[in-house]
Amino acid sequence: MSECCTPGRGAVGTVDPTDIAVQHVEPPPTSDEAAGRLIDVGTQMFTMGSVGPLAIPGDGEGPAHVVRLASYSIAPYTVTNAEFADFVAATNYRTDAERFRWSFVFGPFLPDDFPDTRGVADAPWWRQVFGADWRHPDGPESTLEGRSDHPVVHVSWRDAVAYCDWRNVRLPTEAEWECAARGGLSGCDFPWGDELEPDGRHAMNVFQGTFPAMNSAADGYAGTAPVDAYPPNELGLHQMTGNVWEWCADWYSPTYYASSAEVDPPGPATGIARVMRGGSYLCHESYCRRYRVSARSSNTPDSSSGNVGFRVAAGGVSG
Q1: In sequence order, what are the residues at sequence separation of 6 or more whose Cβ sits closer than 8 angstroms to the Cβ of residue 30?
Q2: pTM, entire model
C-alpha cells in the first residue's frame, strides 16, 4: 500500500470494528439499464505493464507482457455523486466511512480553525477526520453543493462492490482497466501519449505547484473535477488518469505480473489489499508519479479517502 497516495484505514492505529459487516443490496428490476451507458471495448490483445524510467520500484509494474481479454464494456466516467446518491436513496446503504464515522481528508482542504486531527506518520497531509464521508468530502461542514457531477469519493472497495451489485454491473479487472485506459495506444505513459501536457495543455486533473503546501490549480481544479472535465481517450473514456483513484476487482500483489495468466488474468487468489489505478488530483511528480496508465497502487477493502472513487464494467469472463 502507498500511504502517500491513499492511506489505509489502519494507518492511524487500531480501527473500531463496530458495525462493519459487509452489507448486501438487492438490484432493482431495471438495474440492467446501466449497460446502456457503457462503452463496448470488444475483444482485446494489448501489452500490459511497464519497466520504463517512470516505473516506481516495488509497485510491480513489470514485466511488460501481452494480455488477451474477452469482450467487455466499461463506463465512460467514474460514478458520480448524483449516481451514488440514487443508490443510497434506493437501498439506505451506509458506507464504510459512515459506519467507522471517519475517513481521510487532505489537510489543506480543512478550515484553518479546524481542530487538530491525527495524521498519517509517513504522509502528514492525510488527516483522520470524523464526520468525513461521501456526503461531506472535505469534512463534516462540507457539502456536495456544486459537485453532483464530480466523482463520488470516500467510498471503500466494499462500497464500490455494493453499488455494482445494485446496478447489476461489476468493477473492472486490473487488466481490463489498463487496456481501456490505454485506448489502443501501445507503450505510452498516458491515455493520449507520452507528454504530460500535450501541446502545452492540461489533459488531466493532478496537483500543480509545490506539494503539499501550494497548489496553483493551473489545470482548473484544486480538488475533484467533473467526470467529463477533460477530453476522452480514443475509446471515449474520460479521466482514466488523474482526478480520483479507481478501485479494480483484483487483489494486489507486487509480484503478480511475473506469473500471471496471459488470457483474462483475474489477479491473485487472495490478498490483503485491492488494486487501485489511475492516480488522482493529488499526484505530483515530486512524490507520486502514479498518474500513468501502467502505474499501480492498492489499499485495504475497508479504506476510504477523499481521492478514491470507481467506475463500472460488464461482460468479459467476470461478467
Answers
A1: none
A2: 0.93
